[in-house]
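ok posting inputs for the pyridoxal-5'-phosphate job
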Amino acid sequence: MKGRPLTASAQHAPTPFQVSGNELLVGDVPISRLAARVGRTPFYAYDRGLLSQRVSELRAALPAEVCLHYAMKANPMPAVVQHMVRLVDGIDVASGGELKIALDAGADPMEISFAGPGKSADELVQAVAAGILINVESPRELPILSDASARLGVPARVAVRVNPDFEIKGSRMRMGGGSKQFGVDVEQVASVLEEIGARRLEFEGFHLFAGSQNLDARSICEAQRRAVELAIRLAESAPNTVKSLNLGGGFGIPYFPGEQPLDLQAAGEGMQAVVAEARRAFPEAKLIIELGRYLVGEAGVYVCRIVDRKVSRGRVFLVTDGGLHHQLAASGNFGQVIRRNYPVAIGNRMGAPDLETVSVVGPLCTPLDLLAEQMPLPAAGPGDLVVVFQSGAYGYSASPRDFLSHPHPPEVLV
Ligand SMILES: *Cc1c(COP(=O)(O)O)cnc(C)c1O
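and the output
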């Protein structure tokens, strides 16, 4: 179907979806028809074409030798992971459950890595048996890994996840620097490396992840430059050569009015120097960045249907069948300090001008169940479809779906 781009309105940041007539298109299917195909609302829909397009854009902008990994906790839907496995160079998992999905999706174990604090002994054994790379975050993991390796007769492949001695600027979620539960403090890395050597674990390199949801290309590149600098320093204590250097990621997407998308060209250009330096210091190493939300976040929508239109003392409420139990982040209750509206549209009235200022709420008996507050939208009522954009990452799997015991929403990859 021939669509036209959906331009940014004053209400929201640009999204990559197209529209045709009054209908938003997901995977070329008009949203009303897609809702009928799914058979019920609410649901999540992810656009295959947009997932592929995003990876192509990254490949075109980033230095060619950078390997692109998908951090699948952003969206672990098996069909999405299967699609991503064919497009990217590796998968980052954060649990034994995610490891299963990645393996089922056909990911090459050599290109799967596993990070996270508090990995259970069972998960560590599973990881060794699968032959994946384990990002060690605590000395506690080392004896479990060497025991598993001896028992199974397979090498335990490890990298050290480092908690750097610097912080990244502009990241909404900082995951490195200062005191953190993530990674091994720089000051303790040498002793962990010594134990890795003594236990004959297969050391492959370092993992440095400074933070998440960053829209500033310069601070992303600066964090990567410092990560390489740090890796050079730490490699002096390594038991063998560095074969893998994970520089983190943290590429963000715009959620709120006024946020500018990340300048991908600038990020790519800034990374040229970082990559050259890493190449010089670690000629044999794979250089990796791992991205979650940047790969999938903008390719997904959450769709719900208006069931009631109420006017309370002059204010219009569009009451939908969906809400925070499915899309917690859009309600403002997933790590936001000040609640701001995600981009929202009436998916079957895309051509119509914004006519009235309304609040879009869900069916839950709590005032927190809010999808849009005082937002200008086309006049809409029961039967119309509310679409929440930027819902491809940390949506379905990051929401309290059993809260109030409504059915879980289907997910479709279109
Ligand atoms: C969550 C996480 C990511 C992905 O973060 P995004 O903001 O989705 O890109 C990458 N690496 C690690 C180690 C993570 O924990």
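notes: Residues 4-47+298-413 form a domain with the Lyase, Ornithine Decarboxylase; Chain A, domain 1 fold (CATH 2.40.37.10). The first strand starts at residue 4 and ends at 5.
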